[in-house]
């Protein structure tokens, strides 16, 4: 901006009348100063011009230092914040490429970037023009809040509530950062332009002080006009920037739909209005069925196309008064208020379900995606936005649990079930700390010799109040809440320590430990295995990790890399529940596994069911051809054991041999195994070969 801006800066200091938002002088104060300066030029002539030159030179010297501050720091901080939001959202959505470690690392990067706003040597002067202090403080407060939300966390998979809180905490600071970048850029341009104009004017004033008197007056007026035009243009640019920033902050970049932040604001506003008018507010939450498979099969780019197509499908299917939102990932929400909310939620939901019966067109491909829908109402199912949203989410979970591609309205029993699960979750947390968990062992038998070749480690929980709790109850809960990570570590370490206590022939036996998908995907399982082996002293070849087919197929490239490292370490790898999943010859050829575990569903009726017998025969033949061992689980009768041996299955486990037992009992059992087997002629035959 030309040199009058420098004089305007004096007005800010001298008169103290400045706009509180921008730090710039008010129009009235600036006009008063400029008229006064013009009168001084007319009355005092050369003397006033000389004094003015001195003042302008001082201001130029000071302003030359201000331009060292630019918008890079604010831009870098805004970029790192956006990176953190993106990674956190992807992590919550279950993206394997956004593990918790990267989310935490990005948050640390954001916090490390914040001090860059204070790097200027002339900061104390610069902050007269732009509110760097206030912006830095707001961002710091937001980061403290986010850090509080994420403290002591090991993951947020599926935790949409926390994601929403984080998004809400960062929304306002992001808008302020963008405004700061605009202000810094404007001031920088103003200062640079002002310095140049000052130098030119000073040269002319020193040479032609009196002769340029009239010209100065004319130039002064022209500059005032230019400044007015520049101010109007700056206001327009700032307004456009603010509008664009607000739109970006409130809308999804992929689909163009309102995002979670705008959703919460709209829902609160709708409920506030409904509380006054007496109308209902209807909320539907939708989750696309099978979307993860689309991403895994065709890639994330195609997945984005599918999401866009799904959003367009919803726009077309919904009535004009419906407020459609993308909450994140493959989850959407619909809000209806006023007369539209009086429509039956079942009618609207069934219409949407029918809409998704038709394939989605994505470029040159078509894809079939269903949707699960949950519904809740204000004030029937909740008295505020948070409770209504929670009720709709519970209904959505019930719909997905019911088989997907269906609709479930909220029922009060859903909340009771959640509270029960929350109580159990807290009990499970305490169980880890209080030592209520115990590792049981079930022997694994060589079907040809009858010898015990190892054991599978199985977690058991004996609650002080409720007694024994089935693993089928608490293991899924642990996987959903992230508690499976410390539980998995506990089982692996306890099992390895116990295996080191075995003596005699058992000292060479293996210990099999199940690995959950969460351990494999969201944690460095290789590092964890190394730490456990080092801590317990167990030789790596005595540890066998059991993994599922589905885990291997989620991200084949990543799975291959991890399994290869484990194989190089010497750890044995087995595919659990083989035959119930993909059972693909191609992945068996690719992955470095050593054993297939025949699921007990094929063993249970192998005596009478020819199909089960044929399936087992095929699995054993396949394994043999690939150089893999086979072990059958769930053996309960001598006949099952005999048939499996005849089919070529090498190993087995089940109640026929022994139930899962405490570690101390297992050590006693191994020493008396053949004596116990003597009571069963079939066992003696196996032992004799």
Distance between the termini: 98 Å
Unreliable runs: 1-26, 62-69, 675-689
User: Which class of the largest domain in CATH terms?
Assistant: Alpha Beta
How are the strands of the largest sheet arranged? 8-9-11-12-13-14-15-16
Overall mean pLDDT: 79
What is the rounded Rg? 35 Å
Class per helix and strand makeup: alpha/beta
CATH architecture of the largest domain: Alpha-Beta Barrel
Shape verdict: elongated
SS summary, helix count: 28
Oligomer: single chain
Q: What level of helicity do the residues show?
A: 55-70%
CATH topology of the largest domain, by name, is TIM Barrel
In CATH terms, the superfamily of the largest domain is: EAL domain
Number of domains: 3
Secondary structure blueprint with pairings:
Layout: H1 4-14, H2 27-44, H3 46-66, H4 72-92, H5 100-113, H6 123-126, H7 132-150, H8 160-207, H9 213-250, H10 260-277, E1 281-289, H11 291-298, H12 300-317, E2 323-328, E3 331-336, H13 345-355, E4 360-362, E5 365-367, E6 370-378, H14 385-401, E7 407-409, H15 412-434, E8 437-446, E9 452-463, E10 467-469, H16 471-481, H17 484-499, E11 510-514, H18 517-522, H19 525-536, E12 543-548, H20 549-554, H21 556-569, E13 572-578, H22 585-590, E14 595-598, H23 600-603, H24 610-625, E15 629-632, H25 638-647, E16 651-652, E17 661-662, H26 663-671, H27 673-677, H28 681-688
Helix pairs in contact: 1-2, 2-3, 3-8, 4-5, 4-8, 7-8, 8-9, 11-12, 15-16, 17-19, 19-21
């Amino acid at each position: 901006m030309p040199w009058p801006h420098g004089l305007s800066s004096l007005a800010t200091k001298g008169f103290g009348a400045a706009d509180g938002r921008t730090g710039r002088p008010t129009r009235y104060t600036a006009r008063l100063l400029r008229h006064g300066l013009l009168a001084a030029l007319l009355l005092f002539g050369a003397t006033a011009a000389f004094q003015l030159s001195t003042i302008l030179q001082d201001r130029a010297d000071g302003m030359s230092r201000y331009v060292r501050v630019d918008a890079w720091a604010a831009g870098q901080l805004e970029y790192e914040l956006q990176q953190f939001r993106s990674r956190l959202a992807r992590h919550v959505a279950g993206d394997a490429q956004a593990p918790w470690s990267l989310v935490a690392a990005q948050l640390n990067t954001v916090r490390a970037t914040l001090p860059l706003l204070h790097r200027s040597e002339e900061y104390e002067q610069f902050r007269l023009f732009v509110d760097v202090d206030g912006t830095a403080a707001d961002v710091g407060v937001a980061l403290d809040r986010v850090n509080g939300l994420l403290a002591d966390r090991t993951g947020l998979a599926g935790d949409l509530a926390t994601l929403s809180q984080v998004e809400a905490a960062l929304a306002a600071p992001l808008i302020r950062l963008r405004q700061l970048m605009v202000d810094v850029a404007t001031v920088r341009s103003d200062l640079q332009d002002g310095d140049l104009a000052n130098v030119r004017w000073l040269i002319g004033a020193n040479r032609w002080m009196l002769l340029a008197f009239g010209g100065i007056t004319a130039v002064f007026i022209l500059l005032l006009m230019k400044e007015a035009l520049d101010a109007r243009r700056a206001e327009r640019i700032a307004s456009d920037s603010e509008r664009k920033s607000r739109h970006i902050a409130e809308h999804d970049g992929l689909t163009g739909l309102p995002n979670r932040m705008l959703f919460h604001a709209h829902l609160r506003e709708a409920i506030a209005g409904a509380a006054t008018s007496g109308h209902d507010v209807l909320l539907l939450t939708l989750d696309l069925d099978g979307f993860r498979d689309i991403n895994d099969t065709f890639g994330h780019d195609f997945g984005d196309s599918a999401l866009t197509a799904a959003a367009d499908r919803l726009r077309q299917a919904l009535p004009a008064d419906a407020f459609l939102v993308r909450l994140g990932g493959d989850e959407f929400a619909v809000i209806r208020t006023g007369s539209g909310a009086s429509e039956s939620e079942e009618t609207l939901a069934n219409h949407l379900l029918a809409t998704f019966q038709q394939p989605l067109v994505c470029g040159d491909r078509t894809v079939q995606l269903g949707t699960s829908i949950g519904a809740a109402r204000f004030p029937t199912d909740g008295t505020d936005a948070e409770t209504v949203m929670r009720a709709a989410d519970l209904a959505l979970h019930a719909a997905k649990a019911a088989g997907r591609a269906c609709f479930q309205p909220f029922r009060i029993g859903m909340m009771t079930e959640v509270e029960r699960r929350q109580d159990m979750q807290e009990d499970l947390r305490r169980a880890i700390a209080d030592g209520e968990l115990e590792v049981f062992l079930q022997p694994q038998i060589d079907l040809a010799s009858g010898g015990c070749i190892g054991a599978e480690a199985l977690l058991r929980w004996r609650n002080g109040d409720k007694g024994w709790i089935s693993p089928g109850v608490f293991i899924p809960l642990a996987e959903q809440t992230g508690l499976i990570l410390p539980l998995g570590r506990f089982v692996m370490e306890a099992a390895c320590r116990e295996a080191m206590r075995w003596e005699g022939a058992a000292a060479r036996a293996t210990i099999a430990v199940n690995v959950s998908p969460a351990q494999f995907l969201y944690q460095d399982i290789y590092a964890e295995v190394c730490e456990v082996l080092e801590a317990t002293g167990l030789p790596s070849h005595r540890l066998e990790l059991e993994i599922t087919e589905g885990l291997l197929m989620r991200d084949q490239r990543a799975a291959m890399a991890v399994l290869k490292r484990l194989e190089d370490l010497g750890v044995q790898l087995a595919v659990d529940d083989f035959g119930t999943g993909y059972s693909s010859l191609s992945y068996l050829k690719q992955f470095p596994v050593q054993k297939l575990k025949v699921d007990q569903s094929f063993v249970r009726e192998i005596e009478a069911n020819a199909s089960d017998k044929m399936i087992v025969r095929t699995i054993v033949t396949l394994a043999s051809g690939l150089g893999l061992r086979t072990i059958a689980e769930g053996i309960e009768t001598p006949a099952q054991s005999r048939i499996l041996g005849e089919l070529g299955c090498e190993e087995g486990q089940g109640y026929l041999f022994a139930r899962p037992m405490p570690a101390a009992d297992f050590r006693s059992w191994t020493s008396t195994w053949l004596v116990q087997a003597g009571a069963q002629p079939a066992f003696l035959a196996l032992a004799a070969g």
